Amino acid sequence: MDISRRRALLATAAAPLAGMALRASARDVADGPDSRKTDSSSAMLAPRPPMGWNSWNSFAGTITEEQTLETARIMADKLLPSGYDTLTVDIQWYEPEASSYSYNANPVPALDEYARLIPAPNRFPSSKGGKGFAPLADKVHALGLKFGIHVMRGISRLAVKRNLPILDTGYRAQDIADTSSICPWNPDMYGVDMGRPGGQAYYDSIFRLYASWGVDFIKMDDMSRPYDAHVPEIEAAGKAIARCGRPMVLSLSPGETPVPRGDHVRRYAQMWRISDDFWDDWGMLEAQFTRLANWSLFRGPGCWPDADMLPLGRLALGDRDTRFTPAEQRTLMTLWSIARSPLIMGGDLRYLDEATLTLLTNREVLAVNQASTDNQPHYLEDGIRVWSARASDSEDRYLALFNMSGEARPVGADLALLGMPQRMAVRDLWAGQELGVSEGRVTAELPPHGSALYRLRAVS
């Protein structure tokens, strides 16, 4: 079964950071990574990388209200204590006939009278009577979780066919639709021509609707690629959220978001995808190292380059478990943590096993993701990757070592090359153990595609 919505990006990642930095705005490069000009409200919306669960990797577009609530209860019990607090219903919650990872060529989505998509009542029965997602969101909130939904860029093609009115305007769907702007992998929507009157009013109306439902998080798809073609709608969504009356985190998808547009994207969204859909394939994981490195200039409070969901545990409508080896699963979590990517679990929580739960909830590893600073890669030797960061609560440093080869090997880094003191007490964060004092170099014996994550403290 082909479970990718889009073309898999398995080959070369984005250009090296140095080259991209030259093309980034002079203001950003001059400011440097620690003086980001982020909007204060954006930083307050997502002061740390968001953590949560999303239905795509395990349910495709088929999730129901019953499955959502079952997952929410497990999430509140197993993952919320570790900080995973946002549950997101992914694509096609408005499609009554959604059945797999492929899409109906001629969908008949649920719509209200103002051209806005609403939950399919056969899948989300509490939405009947114009209630939308409000009853479901209330139940999710009662568990201590935030509620998120996936939306597509634009306006429903069915709404355009029916030429439905736009709320609080004299315009109709055909007045604002750009029928030449279509998603290459999904047949649901047309783009909105933001140069026409009524376009912003449409976006304002859909986000006010989501606010009335109690939505906390929006994953907005078909936005980041091609980026410049979609800039007017990216800005429209950002403006609509700002005036909708409810705080919402905006996550743009899919990638690859162009690194030179980092200054723009961080002004309108709190998360943005750096790649196409990420699945459990070593080639995809290897490519994310370069992409995450390239985005280092733009990472900070309210600005989180997103390496995509964690395809761990049971996946693909229950067809299989993750193809990542145990070492690769740890490498995934180590990289997402040291690079501070959002941590969004994708596996089916109804089949959450102890090994996966342990991987997701290591308190010391999650602290690297949630509270470190100065996260950066170091290019020291072929076949290895090295990242470092600073702890937020002391002068301690974090060090991540990665074996990129298919053979077991020692991987190490000289402390002087990392700008660290020569004598460091080493704590293994995955094992939760003190390893003693290293002088001049930290080295680990790593399995194929394996990793290590340490906390280092200077000693005299």
UniProtKB/TrEMBL annotation:
Question: What is the main EC category here?
Answer: hydrolase
Q: Which SUPFAM superfamilies match?
A: (Trans)glycosidases, Glycosyl hydrolase domain
Listed under catalytic activity are: Hydrolysis of terminal, non-reducing alpha-D-galactose residues in alpha-D-galactosides, including galactose oligosaccharides, galactomannans and galactolipids
Which key words are in the record?
Disulfide bond, Glycosidase, Hydrolase, Signal
Annotated signal peptide? 1-26
Protein's GO biological process: carbohydrate metabolic process
Region annotation (Disordered) maps to 26-47
* Native organism: Altericroceibacterium spongiae
Composition bias of kind Basic and acidic residues appears in 26-39
Query: What name does the UniProt record give this protein?
Result: Alpha-galactosidase
